[in-house]
Amino acid sequence: MQPFTKLSAIAAPFDWSNVNTDQIIPARYLRKSRRHPDYATYLFRDLRFNSDGTENPDFVLNQAAYRQAKILVADVNFGCGSSREGAVFALAAFGIRSVIAASFGDIHYNNCFKNGLLPIRLEEKVLARLRAQLVEQPGSTIEIDLEGQFVVGPDGTKHMFDMDLFRKRCLLEGLDDIGLTLIHEETIASFETRYQETYNWTMPRQG
Hints:
The structure is a single chain. By secondary structure, this protein is α/β, with parallel strands linked by helices. The chain has helices at 21-24, 45-48, 86-94, 106-114, 124-136, 165-173, 177-182, 185-198; strands spanning 6-13, 71-73, 98-101, 118-121, 141-145, 150-152, 158-160. It has a single domain (6-202), classed as Aconitase, domain 4 (Alpha-Beta Barrel). A seven-stranded mixed β-sheet has the order 4-3-2-1-5-6-7. A hairpin with a 4-residue loop joins strand 5 and strand 6 (150-152).
């Protein structure tokens, strides 16, 4: 998993509340391989594209200033609805590394951490100011420092955020569930050796 330490990137104002995971990635794309070259186009598919496949010019990520956005500044209850991990896969495929919102769907919030995407909670009034700045200055950047646990808006104002220390460590070190297990690889191998020596009668006979 790609570590997350610091990020200074274009941010897109996503002025929607209660964005559900089916809006983030429609159910019909859930069986698609993450290696599919078009996977990034599944993100907000029914919002970004018209029924004929053309882009919806009113959707924020289709606007020139925000096409390269790596940060979304959302509203409340982002990622509610179903538990589909594909919602995070689609965000990551597009290039989004962080979503800033007042609140998240609980399962989506957890899925973000497991896939190297940083979800940040800030107060609604702070988010409203950040989105207004991004609208007034299209293409402006936001800085995120995970170690220091702060966000710097386009106007230079610093906003602190809370973060669970275990999740913070995992993101900083790029540790997903498999990576966390592999930290203990030597201990696991040692246990298996001792177990086989102690309980060799449980092992299948050779030949």
